[in-house]
Amino acid sequence: MKRILAVLFFVLSVVPLHAIGFGYHVFEVRTIPEFSEGIFPSSILYQFNFPMPDFLPGSKTEFAFRLDNGLVYRSLRQNPNTAKYEYIGEYTVQYDEFNLYFAQDFHHTEFTSDDLVTLTASIDGRWENAFERLSWMNGPGELQGVFREFANGVNTNRWPDAAWNGNPELRGARSSATIFFSFGLEIDYMRNVITRKDGVYFSSFVHYAPGVVQFFGKSSDFILWRNELDFAWTIFSVRQKNVERDTTWISLVLEDKARYQFVTGSMIPGFTQGGEIWGTEALNSEHVFSNRVMLTLYGPQINSYDCYPRASVFFDFGVSFGRLNGTDENVYEVYGSYGFRAEFVIFNIANAFYEIGYVFDPIKDEKEEVEMRYGVSIGI
Fold first, then answer.
1. How many CB atoms lie within 10 A of CB 212?
2. Quick one: DSSP state of residue 18?
3. Cβ of 107: how many Cβ atoms within 10 Å?
4. Segment 189-206, tens digit of pLDDT
5. Are 259 and 286 a contacting pair, CB within 8 Å?
6. 59, 249, 332, 365: which one has the fewest Cβ atoms less than 10 Å from its Cβ?
7. Which residues is 163 bridged to in the sheet?
8. Which residues of 66-105 are buried (b: 16+ CB within 10 A; e: fewer)?
9. CA 148 to chain CA mean position, Å
10. For residues 185 and 118, is the Cβ–Cβ distance under 8 A?
């Protein structure tokens, strides 16, 4: 069985090379501050489309191969030996994720450009390699990283006998490969016209990574159920006149994004971490809930549909509870942040931004701190 799955994995990995002529689409380009000063992309999500007839008239049928690869930061929040929660530090992860993806839409509405309901299924694979942050040892006082430390002139392993029960993907050479299967439901009743958003969006996904198919080394065996509910309301907007496109001089939009996930299993890797909280991360626990409220003032769309300034105030709240992954310990930890973000958007590709916020993180030594970030980010 494992040989058959290995051959299938290899075949699916090379299929996109023959699918380029069938359609190519870039979904998202991301940056991180320490990679080329945040100017050049650190990761990219793109898709190769296979030609598919629509199974239902007027509703889209999609069959595609998605690739997501690059660098991300992650914080180690469990002791490698005891798996007890403790903030160790941040590290870098190089990753590649593929999805052989099928989606069927149902019921087109005039309110949005997308269909109301979408059912999805995919076969997924993810490879990761973890290493120290790119900035580690840049200064004379930076002698200890997450995995290595420099003492008495020798660079040594910081955790030589670690069990890594809380982060099974970090064992050994800190490289891992995971195969999992995904099934999802999306309900999209959200009208998004750049500076005006109204409606509701809901999604629910199940990701299943059985240990029996982890034939590249067992570092995963879990079931993850992830849910998202987004709400948006344009409080007011002042439209521009005598222009070809539907643009605004000014608008005010209120958004609320709630996320809940449940994960269980004998080996739960770090990439399953849930919650979206500015300035911190939730514990990798059985249950994670987070909520973001954001009020955004959009300025005039200048000589283009997608060039405009905007300023936002936000409040994030999150809670981790239930069993701490890799242990028998029950936890209940609350996180939060609030702040301000100002930015100028250039063709929805580049953002010059400044943001400052107050963060409450119960795991760090300094539980309360002010963070400030600024720069240029690139995204599609």
1. 11
2. H
3. 10
4. 999 888 999 999 999 999
5. no
6. 365
7. none
8. bebebbebbbbbbbbeebebebbebbbbbbbbbbbbbbbb
9. 27
10. yes
**What is the gyration radius of the CA atoms in the chain, in angstroms?**
22
Which of 329, 331, 257, 337 has the alpha carbon at shortest distance from 287?
331
On whether the CB atoms of residues 226 and 259 are closer than 8 A, the answer is yes
Tokens at residue 304, please? 């283009």
Burial of 190 (0-12, 13-18, 19+ CB in 10 A): middle
- pLDDT tens digit sequence for 133-178: 877 655 556 677 889 887 777 878 889 889 998 899 998 889 999 9
State the CATH class of domain 2-378.
mainly beta
| Token couple for 330 | 């029950």
User: Beta strands of 243-284 (E only): which ranges?
Assistant: 248-267
Q: Is 157 helix (H, G, I), strand (E, B) or coil?
A: strand
The residue assigned the tokens 């590249």 is: 216
pTM: 0.84
Tell me what the mean pLDDT of segment 345-354 comes to: 80
* Residue 309: both structure tokens together: 């300034």
CA distance 65 to 125: 11
User: What are residue 110's phi and psi, to 5 degrees?
Assistant: -80, -15
